[in-house]
Design brief:
The chain is mostly helical and 285 residues long. The chain has eleven helices and no strands. The longest helix has 33 residues. Keywords: Membrane, Transmembrane, Transmembrane helix.
């Protein structure tokens, strides 16, 4: 390979195959989110397995709502680096759900939704991983024009928040029975691992901030996380009867969701205002 070839590959292009895969995933996420939100009491017949209490269904749906925003972002992305940092999170999340499924096959319904679930999670982590590897050299490492440089203190702080979420998710995932005894609502071993997988998303996404300071690389991802956080916050209100206030984890979890929602909203607004200001300084053309 000549020295010119790597530079030629770094065209920041989203390949058609990547867009088509994202477009294929979106309908699954939309249907799953709809069923979990609208029919949480009928998940045994309409979804892949019976989920109780409804709050567990809502939390999984919140991840799907954020995923819808992310995969729509892939379909319409103007540059690969705009969505690149979300691919590892999808691989970890989908891979964790595949393992949880194989560990708890006896909990699943023998219906069409489970067949769709199995196909989706048996293929998605591997396809997304391959696409990420194939697309990786196409990121030139340069910012948009205009763009915002995320300050180091913000990147480190958000990465630390993500690390805490990831560690909490890993503990719930690896020790589901222990987590079920202290969690903010009732969990089964399966729903504990699903909840742990949901918590992992923030950690994997925010880890990318340690290597990348371009707001353009995280703009879509933070929009997706904001949507997901808002959905979780709304779920805590709608399904408040499922919360177990005699457990210390309950006020801690509710408080952390509230703080995270405000923090992410303020950070996103700050970056967007700076981007708009910088855009007004850049000459047209």
């Amino acid at each position: 390979m000549s020295a010119a070839e790597p530079r030629a590959a770094a065209d920041d292009r989203v390949l058609p195959a990547t867009r088509w895969v994202a477009a294929a995933v979106i309908p699954f996420l939309v249907i799953a989110a709809f069923l979990l939100y609208i029919f949480p009491a009928r998940t045994g017949e309409l979804f892949a397995w019976p989920i109780d209490p409804p709050l567990s269904a809502f939390v999984l749906a919140s991840a799907y709502v954020g995923g819808i925003r992310f995969f729509i972002g892939i379909v319409f992305a103007r540059a690969w680096h705009h969505v690149r940092r979300g691919f590892p999170a999808v691989v970890v999340f989908a891979g964790a759900l595949l393992i949880a499924t194989l560990l708890h096959l006896d909990r699943f319904s023998t219906n069409l939704p489970f067949a769709a679930w199995m196909v989706l999670y048996a293929t998605t982590p591997f396809i997304i991983a391959v696409l990420a590897v194939v697309q990786r050299p196409r990121d030139p490492g340069t910012p948009d024009r205009p763009d915002v440089v995320i300050p180091r203190f913000a990147r480190v702080g958000l990465a630390a928040v993500g690390a805490c979420a990831f560690i909490a998710g890993a503990m719930v995932y690896l020790a589901p029975s222990t987590a079920a005894s202290v969690w903010a609502w009732e969990l089964t071993p399966l729903t504990a691992q699903v909840t742990g997988a949901v918590l992992s998303l923030t950690g994997v996404v925010n880890a990318g901030l340690l290597w990348d300071d371009r707001w353009s690389a995280f703009r879509i991802l933070f929009q997706a996380q904001l949507v997901s956080l808002a959905a979780i916050a709304l779920s805590l209100v709608v399904a408040r009867e499922d919360l177990l206030w005699d457990r210390p984890m309950t006020p801690a979890f509710v408080g952390l969701v509230g703080v995270a929602l405000v923090t992410y909203a303020a950070f996103t607004l700050m970056c967007e205002l700076r981007l708009r200001r910088f855009a007004s300084w850049v000459p047209a053309g």
